[in-house]
Amino acid sequence: MGIYLGLDSSTQSLTAIAIEVDRGRRSVIFEKSLNFDECFPAYGTSNGVLPHDDPLIARSSPKLWADALEALLALFSKDSGVDLRELRAISGSGQQHGSVYLNASAARTLEKLDPTRMLVEQLSGIFSRDQSPIWMDSSTEEECREITEAVGGDGVLALLTGSRAFERFTGPQIRKFYKEDPDGYERTAQIHLVSSYMASLLAGRHASIDPGDGAGMNLMDLAGRRWAHVALEATAPELEAKLPPLRDSWTIVGPLSPYWVKRYGFSPRTQVVSWSGDNPCSLIGVGLVKQGRIAISLGTSSTLFGFMPRPLVDPTGSGHVFGSPTGDFMSLICFENGSIARESIRKAHHLDWAQFSRHLRETKPGNGGGVMLPWIKPEITPRVHQPGIRRYSIDAKDPAANVRGVVEAQMMALAVHSQWMGVDVRTIHATGGAARNREILQVMADVLDAEVFQFEVSNSACLGAALRAYHAELVSEKVQVGWDEVTAGFTNPVLASRIAPDPACVAVYAELKKLYAACEAHALRGGDNPETLIAELRDKFGWKRLKTDASSSS
Ligand code: XUL
């Protein structure tokens, strides 16, 4: 029998899932989450992000993540009922792109952690930058331009690294830090991703970066899985010396540090396995270990992703190719306005989730020709720097129209912007917190014209991390095992959860998607006012005219 622990250091919380694997028997035996805002209010985060006057800047605290790690492992060691001697390996999943800047004292501090003191107390001297830019930051437009020019254009960078330059990607963030605080950059000995930082805290030594998360930096040669020198040079001087090595996702970083062994009674034989990004981990957690299906994760961000045997770069420039933790590739598109946009509409109309769902049930697909662009935060896909909700033919005060508006917009954006992947989507694996909501998933099925399945474990990133820990241990013991075998019994969708697309609704959305694309074009690129199109749809589907008919934004 073996027990494997997965941790997920996401934007808003730290979660743990422990799995037990005993020949035929496979089960999740522990699951617990600590919400950053609620459990660690002293850091002053809101939805896991530190306050800042500039809406384009989004940072969090690496000390908060360390505090959460200690609190969760303390709780796991005391309350899980797990025999810690059976815990073979721990791996994790980190919010992608976020970076942590450590000085030269970090290596020694990590190695000599004192088990009589709290972790975070001992870390105060190791940072060359107190705050970590995270994936929601979109303040590096200038740095993206500079890097792109230096490497020879969007296409060159995308072919090399899997993505054109994106504001939230780690390379542009590093360049901004180097330009704004050259002394701080000089003092930086090691730049970690959230994933490799958390693994370093567990192992008491600097951990490597895996190709899943490394591909979210605009710094990794995607096909070669090594640092891309031309990109490093375009980003900041002496950068390679400050980056951890790139290693396979199944790399064993080392045994759990004596700190955790002495302070909380963990076994010195428990291995720390390389962490990866949350989306690569989710790919494993929903069982996408070969081509054919896609998954949609409805978390803080919305992401749509799929397994890819060979890297196929997005010619439209909005998608990414990352490494898959299986050693292959994955395609992904990311939308920043995920749970925060749904939550903000829900709160603005004083609804609980049951009322939110009721509005979805009781309103008709197509929203009477109304379209919302719910860009409450700056948006990644499409690129939107000036946040604000845009409404077309939706009354800002009508709760039902706004609920349907936000959900339909999110699903239509997923459909419209994923076409480059060229996947004929028949089946979607839905994951993330909001994938528990069947009304939201019905809209997903109808807009994307695909069957949608739910999973027993909604945090697929965390489950994927636990499965990666299991896989790495097998690899280290030279056991020949396929990913199908690793994931079997954990990642099968719940067959009874199937949500089928309704052909009548699919027909409505086929038209509404065109309207949605026209609204995006109007809002962002000065395209034609979509009113004529709205009127045509009203005639076609017999929808009534709204009093507040003109395009509105607020
Ligand atoms: C992916 C992305 C987000 C974060 C969320 O590129 O930016 O999905 O990984 O944690």
Helicity, in percent?
A: 25-40%
Shape: globular
Which structural class fits the helix and strand makeup? alpha+beta
Would you count the extended β strands for me?
22
Task: Tell me the radius of gyration.
Answer: 23 Å
Termini separation comes to 57 Å
| Low-confidence sequence ranges | 548-554
- How much of the sequence is in beta strands? 15-25%
Query: What's the mean pLDDT score?
Result: 95
Ligands, ions, cofactors? D-xylulose
Largest sheet: 7 strands, mixed
How many helical stretches? 21
List its traits.
single chain; alpha+beta; 7-stranded mixed sheet; 6-stranded mixed sheet; 38% helix; binds D-xylulose
Commentary on this structure:
This protein is α+β, with helices and mostly antiparallel strands and 554 residues long. The strands form 6 sheets. Strands 1, 2, 3, 5, 11, 12 and 13 form a 7-stranded mixed sheet that branches. A 6-stranded mixed sheet has the order 16-17-15-14-20-21, with helices on both faces. A 3-stranded antiparallel sheet has the order 18-19-22. Helix 14 packs antiparallel against helix 16 (399-417). The longest helix has 23 residues, at 503-525. The N and C termini lie far apart (57 Å). It binds D-xylulose. D-xylulose (XUL) binds at residues 10-11, 95-97, 135, 168, 216, 277-279, 300-301, 303, 334.
List the helices and strands and how they pair.
Elements: E1 2-9, E2 13-22, E3 25-35, H1 36-39, E4 59-60, H2 62-79, E5 87-94, E6 99-102, H3 106-111, H4 119-123, E7 132-133, H5 141-151, H6 154-161, H7 170-180, H8 182-187, E8 190-193, H9 194-203, H10 211-214, E9 220-221, E10 226-227, H11 229-235, E11 252-255, H12 258-264, E12 271-273, E13 276-277, H13 278-285, E14 294-298, E15 302-308, E16 320-323, E17 329-335, H14 339-348, H15 353-362, E18 371-375, E19 388-392, H16 399-417, E20 427-431, H17 438-448, E21 451-453, H18 460-476, H19 483-487, H20 503-525, H21 531-541, E22 551-553
Parallel strand pairs: 1-5, 5-12, 5-13, 14-20, 20-21
Antiparallel strand pairs: 1-2, 2-3, 4-7, 6-8, 9-10, 11-12, 14-15, 15-17, 16-17, 18-19, 19-22
Helix pairs in contact: 5-7, 5-11, 13-18, 14-16, 15-16, 16-17, 16-20, 17-20, 20-21
Residues 10-11, 95-97, 135, 168, 216, 277-279, 300-301, 303, 334 line the site of D-xylulose (XUL).
